[in-house]
Amino acid sequence: MQPAQTARLRRLSAAAAYAVVVGLVVTVLAYLVRSKFDPLVRFDEARILSATSFTRDHPRFLDALLFWQAISQPLAAYLVVAVPACLWVWLRKHLTTRAWWAFLTMMVGWMLALGLKALVQRARPVVDDPVSQSAGYSFPSGHATNAAIIATALTLLFWPLLSRAGRRAAIAASVLWVTITCLDRVFLGVHYPTDVIGGVLLGCGLVLASYAGYVGWTPRSPEPSGDHPDPTVDRRADPSPTETPPRGTDMGFLTRYDDDPTAPRVRDAARDALVRAILPAVGLWLVIVAFGWMLVDGPLQGLAKAEEKVNDRVAAGRTPTWNTLTEYFSLIGSTMVIIAVAVIVSAAVWWATKRWWMAVVPLLAIFMQSIVFGTASVVVGRDRPTVKMLDSSPPTTSYPSGHESASTALYVSFLLLSLRVRNPALRWTLVGLCSLMPILVFYGRLYRGMHHLTDLAAGITNGVVCALLAWNYLRREPRSASQTDADAAVHTRA
Question: Same structural domain for residues 444 and 484?
Fold first, then answer.
């Protein structure tokens, strides 16, 4: 092994060790919280009672706490502070990989915090006379976790651009922001002290471990663009984006972005998306609405009644274990998870391939399916199953399934992207995972009494068609016949 490779392996091993230590500490704390460890519970409850009592006696202090709660909302912090900072570092300072590292790390951290909340399921503090109330689970604190994530990530993002005094100021500002956020959550009585402690440990630890991995992977002499080549893409079969392939007649559906890798103008791509994807989706909408009307008021009402028996049989076989598992299956297709995963993966594809026109495929797919699903749901207006539902009912109606539609559109588009991966083991692993996700969502929504079978079938149809339309949205020029013959000759000799 070369010395450079040995050094890189050592740095990556250190990053992995940091991640394991952070994960172990947070896991132990989460276990103590979930198991209701008595000394920890007494500590938390005593601190909450004293903190809320102080807040209740000082109205102006309460007003300040509520103001800070509003401006420190995670979504607002990401949109107003974090994302613009990443864009500025990327576009103005040309630190491309550093900006993408910060953005992806923050998005992954946000999703991990949401997942940990659903896993631990700690109830919020209960006070006789609450000064504020918040929905959702308590551990870890979302405000504290995301404040720690954003503060740590942005400090490291701007580190090479700051003077010594600027670095001290950045650290002081970050510590102050996180500390005020943590105190705000406790004095409002919406989180226990261990919730905010766990959030800070998770947020800071995750970002530091990620940064150690980023530094360990980044070569000392980066490419002129500041980006790393994608190790999963076969560059030998991937012509340079600056080369225009000759026109011809052979265009493969799955290989269309490799057959013609030329960068389109944004205006042309938008026009193609409208003409080749969005307008054809109108036909899909008509089919889905027509089938829905036949189920609700037409000749398929008998099928709709028979479906209720399927829901009854599934509900009769519920168990505590499957109740918990299907909660996570259903979460895969939830709006926030779908959007977050789509943005993170699309950003990663853009960074790895330098082809934004291909990276937007998953985003276009979930956008189209959401329009088809949302409007069809309003027009058809089918009631949800009569069995006891294990999830709170969203404002949309039962047909078609939004969870199934979104997860199918997203993961089918991911599957199409995965077919470009060079390593066979990784490629088929990704294909298998992308195929599995809509199946898990399907069973989760059926098991939890949220949809009929035909609702889910319509969701699958909507998702698959929208993913295929999105994949085919951009007009590509096929390879020439001579190039095709040459490729065939190479394969024949091989």
Answer: no
Residues 354, 239 within the same domain: no
Question: pLDDT digits over 322-357, tens only?
Answer: 998 999 999 998 888 899 899 889 988 888 888 999
Give just the sign of the alpha carbon dihedral 281, 283, 289, 292.
Answer: negative
Query: In which domain, by residue range, is 413 found?
Result: 263-471
Give tens-digit pLDDT for 102-159: 888 888 888 888 888 878 888 888 887 777 877 778 888 889 999 999 999 999 999 9
Find residue 250's DSSP bridge partners: 479
Report the SS3 class of residue 221. coil
Does residue 229 sit within a domain? no
| Region 469-473 average pLDDT | 92
Is 451 a catalytic site residue? Answer: no
- Residue with token string 């997203």: 410
What average pLDDT does this structure show over 172-197? 91
* Cβ atoms of 18 and 204 closer than 8 Å: no
- Which amino acid type is present at position 11? R
Rounded Cα distance between 186 and 181, Å, is: 9
Could you say which of 143, 403, 451, 452 is catalytic? 143
Please state the length of the chain. Answer: 494
CA distance 38 to 285: 56
Q: Is 191 a catalytic residue?
A: yes
> How many independent structural domains does the chain possess?
3
Catalytic site residue from 191, 403, 451, 452? 191
pLDDT > 70 fraction of the chain, expressed in percent and rounded = 86
Percentage of the chain surpassing pLDDT 90? Answer: 27
- List the one residue out of 187, 217, 203 whose CA is nearest residue 106: 203
Q: Is 105 exposed, middle or buried (0-12, 13-18, 19+ CB in 10 A)?
A: buried
Instruction: Give yes or no for a contact between 188 and 53, defined as CB atoms under 8 angstroms apart.
Output: no
In a domain, 225, yes or no: no
pTM value surpassing 0.85: no
Residues 400, 376 contacting (CB under 8 angstroms): yes
Which tokens in the block code for residue 26? Answer: 């947070």
